[in-house]
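Materials and Methods. Structural model of ATP-binding protein. The 398-residue sequence of ATP-binding protein from Pseudonocardia eucalypti was retrieved and submitted for structure prediction as follows.
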Amino acid sequence: MAMDPVRNPFAPGAGQRPPELAGRDRELDAFDVVLERVSRGRPERSLVLTGLRGVGKTVLLGELRSMALRHGWGAGKVEARPDAGLRRPLSAALHRAVRDLAVRHRAPDRVEHVLGVLKAFALRAAPSDSKLRDRWQPGIDAPTVTGRADSGDMEIDLVELFAEVAELAKDVGAGVAVLIDEMQDIQPDDVSALCAACHELSQSRAPLVVVGAGLPHLPSVLSASKSYSERLFRYLRIDRLNRDEADRALTVPAADEDAKFDTDALDELYRRSGGYPYFVQAYGKAAWDAAPTSPITAEDVRHAAPEADAELAVGFFGSRYERATPGEREYLRAMAELAGGRDEPVGTATVAEHLARKPSSLSPARDSLMKKGLVFSAQRGHIAFTVPHFGRYLLTQD
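The predicted structure was written out as tokens:
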């Protein structure tokens, strides 16, 4: 069969769902249990997904949101940013969740009341001293209800708002899922408030769950805010695919298009992708386009690899590398050299020794790289890349 690029099923892209969501049954099953237990009024912890970039955390959050909606729940998604508070994006996410529930609720006045509380919560995102014309309007079509979730104290307001929204869900025998991507970027006060609100929810068995996703150091961010967060969330580590899972991510979509990969091609694809879902899609797409006929061979994969490498260099690695200053790039390069291009943590003291610098003089560069989400503290005194294969990429740069 001649290969048709129009029928290429592979989809490398940030947050884009692959045609076959392989290797994530454990997480999907865990969330299904959460949905069922919460719907029956049983206690259940919120979920936190952690992993490197490119392992499919954002895709998985989208899938969990779809599962919640299929269960008749309200669901809203937030992407946290380090330079912005949580109040405004969380308002938009909960507005979406309330609208999901409103179509099943028989008391419009009750829905309007909750929307009014949500609006009051949202309006506190604007500084109190800002001019009226400059104040952000949340776009919630309901009169503002004051005296609930609008104190300005994020912890108090979030507990009260979650209680209002959860009660609305309970009226229709459903629940609410709040999904937060890049959770490690939530500002410290908001992290504390979110943990307190989740703690209150778990004690009252309210039908609202938070599902967070973030980089590997997210559990330490949460525990630094509230010591009980270790017991508050169920942590699931999202890792690269094993060989069988990576093969399935390639062979199932190909078979749907009447094509296949030979065994040697699958060997070569796994060697190059390392099983990271983003790379599996990138190399799979390039191999399909390069192959003249089915089955796709190892030679097709080798012929296509430079094109996939070039796309990753620009869109996946390069876009992140460009955000680093010259001093930060020097630090990154040292990490790559010390690890030999492998995805392994290195000692911060070893980096300083490698650069012939005092460790204290490198702290600003390291801290800035952590804020930019390029590295994380893998363990005490060690640092690692948040992006798989980043060290290998850096060693190819001049």
